[in-house]
Amino acid sequence: MKTRWPLLLLIGLSAFTLLMAMSSSAVQTALAFPPTSNLPTRVSFPTLALETPQPTATRERYALTPPPDSDVAEPLLTLTALSEIAYNQPTPTDGPSEIIADGKPHLVDFNAFWCSPCNQMRPGIIELREQYAGQVTFDDINTDNRASQKLARQYRVTFIPLIVLLDKDLNEVNRLEGYHTKQEIDDALKELVAAQ
After folding, report:
1. Residue 176 sits in a domain of what CATH number?
2. Is the pLDDT of residue 64 over 50?
3. Whole-Å CA distances, 100 to 174, 187, 190
4. N or C terminus: which one in the chain shows less Cβ crowding within 10 Å?
5. Choice among 53-62, 113-122, 125-134 with the minimum mean pLDDT
6. Who has greater pLDDT, 52 or 132?
7. pLDDT (tens digit, 9 = 90+) per residue, 81-123?
8. What angle do CA 144, 150, 152 make, to 5 degrees?
9. How far are the Cα atoms of 148, 155, 161, 167 from residue 152, in angstroms, in the given order?
10. Is residue 151 part of a domain?
11. Full-prediction pTM beyond 0.70?
12. Based on the number of CB atoms within 10 Å of its own CB, is 138 exposed (0-12), middle (13-18) or buried (19 or more)?
C-alpha cells in the first residue's frame, strides 16, 4: 500500500506535464505564430492621455482650521474637533516642548493617556502637587504629544511611567522608573527639597 502512493504521484505528475506541453503547442498552433517570426520583441500599446493632477502637500492632521481658499462649513469643523472626544481620545493640542528654570526643583512626569500604571499614579501625583505647591514645580509631559517628543529624547524616555527629578538648575538628580506609590514619590521629593 505504501509503494502505490509514490507511483500514483509520479504518474499524475507525468500526465500533468504532458497535458501542459500539449496545450502550449496547441495554443501556438491556434495563434498561427511560427516560432521564428519577424514580430518585434517588444510591443507597445497606445496609452490614453488622461489629465492627472500633480500631488500636492497636505496640511497636517492637527490643523483644525481650513486653508483660506477652502469651503469647509463651520459645523463640520466643530464636529471634526469633537470626534476625538466622542471616541475618548485626547484632542491634538501641543504640550510643553521645554522645561523652564524657575528657581525651584522640578518633578517631570512622563506619561500617556493609554498607560494604565500612569493613570493609577496620577491621583497621588495630584495630591503631592498640592502638598509641594510652593517648593517644587510639577511638569506633566504626555509622551504621545508631538511637541513633547524633544523632551522625551532629551531625558531618554524608553518606557513609561517615568518621573525625573531635577534640581533648581535643571540637573537630573533622580529617576523613578515604572510604577511607584505615592509614598515612594513623596520620599524622593523630600530628599530633593532637602538637598536644595
Report:
1. 3.40.30.10
2. no
3. 18, 24, 22
4. N
5. 53-62
6. 132
7. 566 555 655 555 566 778 888 889 999 999 988 888 999 999 9
8. 60
9. 6, 5, 12, 18
10. yes
11. no
12. middle
With 50 as the cut, is the pLDDT of residue 63 above it? no
CB contact burial 36-53 (16+ within 10 A = b; e otherwise): eeeeeeeeeeeeeeeeee
| Residue 137 lies inside a defined structural domain of this protein | yes
Q: Is residue 185 part of a domain?
A: yes
What is the domain count for the chain? 1
Residue 25: what pLDDT?
54
Residue 37 lies in a domain: no
What does the alpha-carbon distance between residue 142 and residue 15 come to, in Å, rounded to a whole number?
67
Distance from the Cα of residue 92 to its chain's centroid: 14
Secondary-structure breakdown of the chain: helix, strand, coil percentages, each rounded to the nearest 5 = 40, 10, 45
